[in-house]
Amino acid sequence: MRVKYYSSEGIVLAKKNYSEADRIIILLTRNWGKLHILAKGVRKPISKKRGSLEIFSRIRFSASQTKGLALITEVEIIDSFNSIRANLKKVAVAYFFMEVLGRVLHEGERHNDVYEITLSYIDKLRCGVKLGKLRADFIYKVLVSLGFWPKGKEMNNPDLVLEEVIERKVNSIRVGKRLLS
């Protein structure tokens, strides 16, 4: 991406501590795909951006490109999904969704359909009762959308197929299965 200044809407997939007061935020954005963006000073207790950059929050942000990572200049929360955060099982499934997306998507590849699928499944998670089925359906939809699985073909073991696609174990599968059983 060679744009100097840009803004978009996105979902926070993950965050990693970087230096003393900064964090690298991994976002799935509507316009730019998966991005790694540096949030300067966000780990300081007085940071205004701190609460907006929580995992699986939907945000509107502005960033400027530097020589290295892009820097977040502004961030506004669109939806923090508080009703999901109040239920441990739903939080586990939401974290699973974010981990799957973080592993399956590549930096800078634009996938509007995956962004829309993610928003719809997080919305379904708010009122969802059959979390195990919701989880399996999410894997199926994402893998079909990205071309890793043929559309219309039944997927008997979504977790196994997912691990074959990303060629490693997904950490939150174990937690999700234990909570949902």
TrEMBL record:
GO terms for biological process: DNA recombination; double-strand break repair. PANTHER family: DNA REPAIR PROTEIN RECO. This is DNA repair protein RecO. Gene3D superfamilies: Nucleic acid-binding proteins. It comes from Candidatus Woesebacteria bacterium RIFCSPHIGHO2_02_FULL_39_13. The keyword S-adenosyl-L-methionine does not apply. GO terms for cellular component: bacterial nucleoid. The keyword Nucleotide-binding does not apply.
